[in-house]
Amino acid sequence: MSSVRPLASVALSALALILAAPAFASPGYDAVDPMIGTSGGGHTYPGASAPFGMVQLSPDTDTSCVIRACYAHAAGYQYDDPTIQGFSHTHFSGAGHSDLGDFLVMPVSGDTVLLEPGDPAKPGSGYRSRFDHKTEEAHPGYYAVTLSDAHVRAEMAAGTRIGVHRYTFQSGDAAHLILDLRTSLYNYPGKTLWSSIRLRPDGTITGCRQTRGWAPDRVLCFAMRFSAPLKDHAFVSTETDVAYKGFQGPGRGTDDLAELQGRAIVARFDFGTLAKPLEVKVAISSVDEAGAIANLDSEPGDFDAVRAKTKAAWEQALGAVDLDAPTAMKTNLYTALYHALLAPSVASDVDGRYRGTDNQVHEAKDFTFRSTFSLWDTFRAEHPLLTIIQPEKTNADFIRSLVESQKQSPFGILPVWQYQGRETWCMIGYHAVPVIADAYLKGIKGFDADEALKAMVASATYGPYGGLVDYMKLGYVPIDKEPEAASKTVEYAYDDWTIAQMAKAMGKADIAATFTKRAGNWRNGFDPKTGWVRARLSNGKFREPFDPVSIKYGSDYTEGNAWQYSWFMPQDEGGLIRALGGDAKTVAKLDAMFGYDNSKLDYSSSEDIAGLIGQYIHGNEPSHSVAYLYSYAGQPWRTQERLKQIVDSQYKPTPDGFEGNDDLGQMSAWLMFTGLGFYPVTPGSLQYVIGRPFVDHATLNLPNGKRFAIVTEGLGDAHPYVGKVTLNGKPLTKGFITHADIEAGGELRFTMSATPNKTWATAKADRPFSMSGY
Fold it and tell me: Which Pfam families does its entry note (predicted)?
């Protein structure tokens, strides 16, 4: 994005930063565009964050929405909005739900300071400000914009546990800041249960708030310091209309100069006229104010130092992949990699303390506790990608965090959809299980495997969760006792298969046998008369009436219908092909899915149904492996055709570049794998199904010091098919590569063709894994 910097001091500061920058530059860093996905339903934010950072410091264009109306503002920022309300410190990247937006800060200049955000349609009615996209600049770890009403250049940078603001006020203008503790994303009356703020003797501002949002009873604290001394301040409760002004406000003990508690607090900080930009450093903690202060002290340095350190961290993280591709694709892929490295995020303080799923404070003694696990989405490709490029975090942090959360859970189960240690119970399945199993089977063992397997089995056998008591008894989830039963049956069966694989590798034969049997339960949801996965009643009958295209919340399926879920048995696609009547009938049904005429269907009431190609819905996860299933039916060239169709229609290097929300990196990870030419259809199988590449060249710079290169000859629209494939110079006849192939280093070379190769990888022995064969 281009940047307009009208203020001389900002320009000089930027020049100093450029001169201080290292001589090398990461091609990945320069190619990332954080604005991708900020329009429409992408739900990404453009602001500053470190890799997997605790703080996501980003602009919020509107926090006034309530309940369902918040969907477009799930990440706080919506590209088409004309104003910025402020800059808050916590955001989800691409989630299908909204929350966070904690501790909103906004600069205000001049003599009049309004404490309400105001109406976006009425300039000057509050502290929000208009802005022009031409003045925005966004890079990994850095965001800037000029606030036209406030006459302020605003810059954001972030460290691991801190966010740093830099505000350049117009010469001669009085400088003020608003800190609003009332605002949140997914806001509604009564969401803030309690909040506090205090001014400490050394000038540090601290406080906490307790909210009841997507996650119940969430506590978050902050610590804030300024680069210029305060001239005056005011803490105002808009609930009681009581204000404590100046340094003479009532304190509590000798540590406080001013303090206020309540459910609707907004603060004003006055600095007078400033000779140089104002820097504001903020740290957060889910534990207490002391934790926030310690986090603040743990990352010293001014704005430029923090920005430079985080830039170096992003260059290193993005350097896991070196790639060359057409310009638009290169931007899309590096931005996808960037989005895939934002979560799971740090959730423990620098001293190891964190708030767990039981809402108690715990300590991670020899690892960093992570949270923000959108597991129904990310088990598919996001976590498998991290096992390749971030295995050290996968073992030391991610999996240990999952297992510790299970031990702390009042129900004794692994996280479902967790952030800041708190559980939301959003979506279905127990998909922490495949994340753990896939990592273990890939040799990532920096955790207690026995403890992890115990947690996995506990999650899969907790009867009160999602109809599991009936699933264990009947072999399926009955729809008359549990909603979305058809989806739950097949998803549970896949999770069970991954438990069996890990147990088998650990020599736990009894556990492996139990869960191998359960892995076949997908058949109990498959109706051989109609060829669909359907919901069954407790008496064994399939529920009637049945409509395979119906999508309704709380119905037989989760955010989808029979078209998407009838393909979800990744552990046994060969078994499905036989059940459908063989390769030809399977291919015909896949073609019917992609070619379905949707012109008479209205899915507008279902927010997550986006990116339709017939009944293939790329904007939602159940469809993500479907294009690769042609390869299981012996027609890999059809997979190549579909991937071209999907990539061309679903991804663009523009703000509206996602057809659906990114779901904490899953949409991005799908593109990253697909761009390289292969995809993990079945995490836990140790295989990646070959599709077709969208890069001229890519190198995976593996943490073990080896490199795995992907080379494409003849890439272009005139050559949409894979003519031949070699692995380390030898012809590859199989339609997949293994994780061991990648870890060993080497070269995967594609020769593209104008016409399909209808003999490559078509034999049943050359097809990807299926538990019951072909």
Answer: Glyco_hydro_92, Glyco_hydro_92N
- 280/392 same-domain check: no
Structural domain includes residue 337: yes
Instruction: Count up the domains in the chain and report the number.
Output: 3
pLDDT digits (tens, 9 = 90+) for 360-398: 999 999 999 999 999 999 999 999 999 999 998 888 799
Domain boundary among 462, 486, 511: 462
Q: Are residues 328 and 383 in the same domain?
A: no
Entry pTM: 0.94
How far apart, in whole angstroms, are the C-alpha atoms of residue 265 and residue 238?
Answer: 6
Q: What is the 3-state secondary structure (H, E, C) of 405-462?
A: HHHHCCCCCCCCEEECCEECCCCCCCCHHHHHHHHHHCCCCCCCHHHHHHHHHHHHCC
Q: Tokens 């969760």 — which residue?
A: 465
CA 641 from chain center: how many Å?
Answer: 28
690, HSE (Cβ side, Cα atoms, 13 Å): 29
480 domain residue, yes or no:
no
CA distance 135 to 431: 42
Range of the domain at 635: 322-344+611-774
Q: Three-class SS of residue 308?
A: helix
Any residues with CB less than 8 A from the CB of 588 and at least 6 apart, and which?
none
> In the numeric block, which tokens belong to residue 144?
């800037």
Give me the DSSP letters along 98-121. Answer: -----SEEEEEESS---SS---TT
